[in-house]
Write a structure and sequence with these properties.
single chain; about 290 residues; alpha/beta; Aminopeptidase; six-stranded mixed sheet; 10 helices; 6 strands; binds zinc ion
Amino acid sequence: MRNANYKFQVKACILQLAACSFFLASCVLHLATASAVHAFFVEAQGLKTTSALKIIVIDPGHGGEDTGAIGPSGVKEKDINLEIAKKLEKLILQKMDVKVILTRTDDTFIPLEQRSAIANKSKADLFISIHANAAYRKGASGVETYFLSFDATDEDAKRAADFENAIVSISNKKQDNKNADDLKSILMDMAQTEFLNESSQLAEIIQENLCQTMRRKNRGIKQAPFIVLAGAAMPAVLVEVGFISNAKEEKRLALPQTQEIIAAAIFKGIIKFEDILRSKMGYALE
Ligand SMILES: [Zn+2]
């Protein structure tokens, strides 16, 4: 009798264990299904996932009386920069849960210092200045991405910074000739110093994506004393998307398709940079 009772208890125990395992398995299955369904709906409806970035400032270089470089057939750098910036804004707004601010949305002149001030005031997480290059050498081509330093990487980098900084003389007629001391004082109290590591990382990622996507000559990541970057209190880069002084590149840069490709490459760079930020900040990757 005792033996039969014992057997009965063992059977009941096994049954309970089986029921328990079944319950656990169905829980796991339920969770997996729920997350797959969630992922499906996020994908299907194009819903945006929480971003480690909240505000991105895009700075279309030049504007208004400051045309920037002008190509052999008259294409103006300021127009190309604005088109790319708007396309990049659209992409970010479509795919990320992030606020985007453009330093200019039309053909308006904005002084260099005001551009980083806009980013600081809005407490932006990223500052991306978009430009097109110019060189005396007509055949010069390719893309390069800059982050800030007081000394330029090479002569070409110095020339690029001199060209972009020359706008100061239009914005402030009293300071017609920015000499080395003026520049030094601007750069001395630069807010950018503590973000140089992240800026170099962002520059590297954007440059890599631009070169891969555009299959253009990789002129590398460079550093130079750009006033527009100096005051930015967040990771900040300046992208030279091609040489408008090169007739072939000028033609290509004026095409909306090329502008889309450039915007998409920069966007990819932002996404990759955001992934790095997420893992640094301990965000759960979705
Ligand atoms: Zn420029």
